[in-house]
Amino acid sequence: MVKSLRGFIKNANKVGRTEIELSPETAIGMNKPERYRHDLIAAIAEDSRRITSELGSECKVELTGLNSRIEWQRVSAIDLVLYIPYAMKVSGCSAGSSKQ
After folding, report:
1. Which of 13, 15, 28, 79 is deepest in the core (most CB within 10 A)?
2. Domain residue ranges of the chain, discontinuous segments joined by +
3. pLDDT confidence band for 68 (50 / 70 / 90)
4. What share of the chain in percent tops pLDDT 70?
5. If you ran DSSP here, which 8-state letter would residue 90 be given?
6. Distance CA 54, CA 61 (A)
7. Is the dihedral of CA 80, 82, 87, 92 positive or negative?
8. For the segment 6-55, what is each residue's pLDDT rounded down to a tens digit?
9. HEC profile for 7-52?
């Protein structure tokens, strides 16, 4: 089995920046994660809209750190999660302002 895997790796068609290495652990990476910045910010904005909707329209949501670099983390052998480390501060909500 190992011999056939080594043969596959040796003969595999490598396209673009593809690299195939035989090692005990699978590695996965991300090139140019900044191309996903607008999608991530849109998801963060939607989250803050939902929070405002649930807590009341007079609530103020302040987001800081959106200018941070996009980071990624491996969550499985073939999956990455992208995120922008940011902070959310919610203020100005009155006790009776949440939706019923």
Report:
1. 28
2. 2-91
3. very high
4. 76
5. E
6. 12
7. negative
8. 777 677 776 666 666 666 666 677 888 999 999 999 999 999 999 999 99
9. HHHHHCCCCCCCCCCCCCCCCCCCCCHHHHHHHHHHHHHHHHHHHH
The residue whose two tokens read 């590695």 is: 27
User: What b/e sequence results for 53-86 when a residue is b if at least 16 CB atoms lie within 10 Å of its CB, and e otherwise?
Assistant: eebbeebebeeeeeeeebeeeeeeeeeeeeebee
Helix, strand, coil percentages in the chain from 3-state DSSP, rounded to 5: 35, 20, 50
Tracing tokens 């080594």 back to the chain, one arrives at: 6
